[in-house]
Design goal:
Blueprint lengths: L5 H14 L7 E7 L5 H7 L2 E14 L5 E15 L11 E10 L2 E5 L10 E6 L17 E6 L6 E4 L4 E6 L4 E12 L2 E4 L43 H10 L18 E6 L2 E6 L56 E4 L8 H12 L5 E4 L12 E7 L1 H8 L8 E7 L8 E9 L3 E3 L2 H4 L5 E3 H12 L35 H11 L11 E4 L1 E3 L3 E3 L1 E2 L3 E3 L3 E11 L5 E11 L9 E2 L4 E6 L3 E10 L7 E10 L13 E11 L6 E6 L4 E4 L2 E10 L8 E5 L15 E5 L3 E10 L10 E8 L5 E5 L2 E5 L3 E9 L10 E6 L4 H4 E4 L2 E3 L5 E8 L4 E9 L2 E10 L1
Parallel strand pairs: 1-5, 12-19, 14-15, 14-16, 16-18, 19-20, 25-32, 34-39, 41-48
Antiparallel strand pairs: 1-17, 2-3, 2-6, 3-4, 4-5, 6-7, 7-8, 9-10, 10-11, 12-13, 17-18, 21-26, 22-23, 24-26, 26-30, 27-28, 27-29, 27-31, 31-32, 33-35, 35-37, 36-38, 38-39, 40-42, 42-46, 43-45, 43-47, 44-46, 47-48
Helix pairs in contact: 4-7
Pfam families: PKD_4 (PF18911)
Protein name: PKD domain-containing protein
Keywords: Membrane, Transmembrane, Transmembrane helix
């Protein structure tokens, strides 16, 4: 079949538009960029959260001749509803979104829901009666398919990319790495792999070397396996939404709904604000509005096989895969906005950035005419909801920006005829990356325009869905407020794909470009992190999950990475370098590495708050051809303190070493101080091995009695809250002298007994200080005349126990009268008087 001359078609198309007959290709596609949202904001933005089964779907033209798909759900379960919801009481719910197919005419919004009849879904919907480009909150972030366990019939959730939900918190969800075919006995059965990108696209650099030889961990993508994951049930998910997500305080919202944005520009150190009114044309663009007499050109012929992605057959849509589908004939000429618009310079930067890798774009100045479906690639500017609705019959929804693409057949990846890029003016925008970072009030323009310009050359079009869960860095991720992405470079998959898309029309440029990022990709983007937030000068710091990329077509030599601490986000060699460098002797072209590094904070760095940054260079310490992406800083700062100084402990009492007798007591008090004020302090008193006194954690333990003879070294150790102990604890030596007998007494000192009865008496031997003498022999003797006839004493002798006591039994005989007993301990004597009566 004869191939179509596309240059002729484009000029013929433009001619007919000019004379008043609107002519387009059979297919139109809208690719939208979304904001990365927390699940709490998705839930609280939704007018209606519901579960339903797809009963039927139908497509039809609206009054703007744009195709709208209507999906009807039955078997409805309402999870949550607001007053805004128009369908909260309906038994059948209708979901309408932009795009679809009527006959051989197709229109498509790339991140619109793909729903199958008979399947059941959990949906977070904007349901206020308007027709949206995509009514699902956050694009595909608010849509989940329900799947049953084949054995237990328990219900679980899948994302639009067929990944299982395995966890949830107020910020978002965690998903499996595998795409799910089905679930059996609580375990994921993996979907058969579909067509994948070439292996070189996935090429990973090995871990870099270090002249000092260091061991680190590589490849973030291998850190988690699905076998370790516990699936989250539908019930658990819904309970979380009802009980936590809907009740979480959001603070500033990321989504803007029905608001009017502005532009923030820093001029002379001050932030200036412009209203969109002053920079948008007085006459609103029509964006290809068509009347009832639209003429559609019927096209026959082969698809341009150059535009297909690694396949001669058309695969079904693949979630999470990066690719291009359809290309433009070169050069791609983009009509710019007027030069006085704030976004003019960033538009120029974006097309120039792509041209650094493949020289495919040209521009011409704004011609002052209405923009839209006119055969010309254009930066349309900023549109409000009414402008978008008047042009197409649908509203923005949660999208940040769109690239409207005209082609003959997006599923067959045919030539792209025209692309128009527009931005949602419900959001406020800025060109100041520092002002935008972490600021939910504004959107940094550069990453958004890079994303949409990527669509204009065919990136993530047609069969390649915008699922935003990619495992590789790319400009095609959604917008993140808390990822340090300044939009000043592309990534290795982007470079790989644009080269393969256009290498048949223009040569591959020999650009040398490497980059480093403070984030990594695994089911979306995640920040690199340090092992803690506060450090001391001279301490080790571990920086986890830093991405290094080589965007070059060819291999390069001696790629190096160095790490710095800086007081601002501009990293240079004038900052504080941490340690030496790591290097790759040879770096494979179009490859990447995710790694963890342990460095040392300089010992002479002043205390303060610092940004952790990195710098990559080639051929040792040389710049590459494109330096805008050669440095990075982590999102969070760290605090550096002076080296921790040890605390000091002082024993206040006793004031020095001392000697006591066994049984004596000593009053112990102490004072702890710390020069860094790292309090509260911890205390430890140790009273010497063998003293029999337990350790104390009190600053002032008070009186302690020593009942064992010996010399005991008492220490007082103070430790600060960071775990640093006093290296020279304060000590005292307590010498406990043995208890020498100095006194003896008996209790009672007198007894009265009747014949043949007995009673005990206790003899106590004490030392000079009242200590109790243990182990001394006490003897007994009846010393009165004929006393032996009246009483007996048992035993004759006895050793004193630990209480200094010896017990004797006195027994009365039959003869009455008096008797005296003498007790003797080392010459010390005491006497017992006994009276015996009948």
């Amino acid at each position: 079949m004869k191939k179509i001359n596309y240059w002729f078609l484009k000029w013929f198309l433009l001619f007919i538009v000019v004379v008043g007959i609107n002519l387009t290709g059979n297919y139109m596609q809208v690719t939208a960029m979304e904001v990365s949202l927390s699940i709490a904001e998705i839930a609280q933005t939704a007018d209606l959260i519901c579960i339903g089964t797809v009963d039927r779907q139908m497509c039809q033209f609206n009054n703007k001749e744009f195709i709208i798909t209507e999906v009807y759900f039955t078997d409805i379960e309402i999870v949550h509803e607001t007053e805004r919801s128009k369908q909260k009481k309906f038994s059948e719910i209708q979901l309408s979104y932009a795009g679809g197919q009527v006959g051989d005419k197709g229109m498509r919004v790339n991140d619109a829901p793909i729903l199958q009849e008979g399947h059941r879904y959990l949906m977070f919907l904007q349901d206020d009666g308007k027709v949206y480009m995509n009514p699902v909150v956050g694009g595909r972030q608010g849509l989940f398919e329900i799947i049953h366990d084949m054995d237990s019939q328990k219900e679980y959730l899948l994302t639009p990319s067929k990944k299982a939900v395995v966890g949830i918190n107020t910020e978002g969800i965690k998903v499996s790495r595998k795409r799910v075919s089905h679930i059996k006995n609580g375990r994921i059965i993996e979907e058969e792999p579909k067509e994948q990108i070439s292996e070189r696209f996935k090429s990973q650099l090995p871990s870099p070397s270090n002249p000092n030889d260091s061991v680190r961990q590589s490849d973030i993508l291998s850190k988690r396996t699905d076998d370790e994951l516990q699936l989250l049930s539908l019930k658990e998910f819904v309970d979380f939404i009802k009980n936590i997500a809907l009740k979480t305080h959001l603070g500033k919202k990321r989504l803007k709904r029905g608001s009017q944005g502005r532009f923030y520009r820093r001029q002379n150190g001050k932030m200036e604000v412009e209203d969109f009114k002053s920079i948008v044309r007085q006459k609103l663009p029509t964006l290809g509005e068509k009347g009832n007499n639209t003429t559609i050109l019927e096209v026959t012929g082969e698809s341009d096989k150059r535009a297909r992605v690694y396949s001669e057959t058309v695969p079904v849509p693949k979630g999470g895969t990066l690719g291009y589908c359809g290309i433009q004939s070169l050069p791609i000429v983009m009509e710019q906005v007027p030069e006085d618009w704030f976004c003019y310079d960033d538009n120029e930067f974006s097309v120039s950035m792509w041209n650094n890798f493949m020289d495919i774009y040209r521009k011409y100045a704004d011609d002052g005419n209405d923009r839209g479906n006119n055969g010309v690639n254009e930066f349309v500017g900023f549109l409000d909801d009414s402008q978008l609705y008047n042009a197409y019959g649908f509203n923005w929804g949660s999208g940040l920006a769109v690239c409207i693409t005209y082609s003959w057949d997006y599923y067959n990846c045919t030539e792209i005829l025209e692309t128009d890029i527009a931005f949602n003016n419900a959001y406020s925008w800025t060109d100041d990356e520092d002002y935008a970072l972490g600021n939910y009030d504004v959107i940094l323009y550069r990453p958004a325009v890079n994303h949409e310009v990527g669509h204009s050359w065919g990136y993530q079009q047609g069969i390649y869905e915008e699922t935003y869960d990619y495992d590789y860095l790319s400009v095609m991720h959604p917008y993140y407020f808390d990822i340090v992405e300044n939009g000043r470079g592309i990534h290795h998959p982007d470079a790989y794909l644009i080269r393969r898309a256009y290498d048949s029309q223009t040569g591959i440029l020999d650009v040398v470009d490497v980059g480093v990022e403070s984030y990594y990709a695994s089911d979306g983007l995640h920040n690199a992190e340090t092992d803690k937030s506060s450090y001391f000068a001279g301490e080790n710091i571990t920086i986890e999950d830093v991405t290094v990329e080589n965007m070059c077509y060819n291999d390069i030599s001696d790629l190096r990475i160095r790490f710095y601490l800086s007081t601002n986000r501009t990293i240079s060699t004038k900052d504080y370098q941490m340690g030496g460098y790591y290097y790759w002797t040879t770096s494979t072209g179009e490859a990447y590495n995710v790694d963890t590094y342990t460095m040392t904070i300089p010992s002479d760095i002043p205390p303060g708050t610092y940004y952790v940054g990195a710098m990559v260079t080639v051929d040792g310490f040389e710049d590459d051809d494109y330096t805008s992406n050669n440095t990075m800083t982590l999102y969070d700062t760290i605090t550096v303190q002076l080296p921790n100084q040890a605390p000091n402990g002082v024993i206040d009492t006793p004031g020095g070493d001392m000697t006591i007798n066994v049984g004596g007591s000593v009053n112990f008090t102490g004072t702890g101080t710390d020069p860094d004020n790292n309090t509260p302090l911890n205390y430890l008193w140790s009273f010497g091995s063998g003293s029999g006194i337990s350790d104390s954690a009190q600053e002032d333990p008070g009186l302690k009695q020593f009942n064992t003879a010996g010399a005991f070294k008492v220490s007082f150790t103070v430790t600060d809250t960071l775990g640093l102990a006093d290296p020279t604890p304060s000590t005292r030596t307590i010498t406990v002298a043995p208890c020498e007998a100095e006194s003896i007494d008996v209790f009672p000192s007198g007894l009265t007994l009747t014949s043949n009865n007995s009673d005990d008496v206790t003899v106590t031997v004490k030392g000079e200080t009242g200590c109790l003498v243990e182990g001394v022999t006490v003897t007994s003797e009846i010393i009165s005349k004929n006393g032996w006839k009246r009483i007996s004493v048992s035993p004759e002798s006895q050793l004193t126990d630990s209480n200094g006591q010896a017990v004797f039994e006195i027994t009365a005989k039959k003869k009455k009268g008096r008797a005296t007993v003498e007790f003797d301990a080392n010459g010390l004597k005491t006497y017992l008087n006994v009276k015996v009566k009948k």
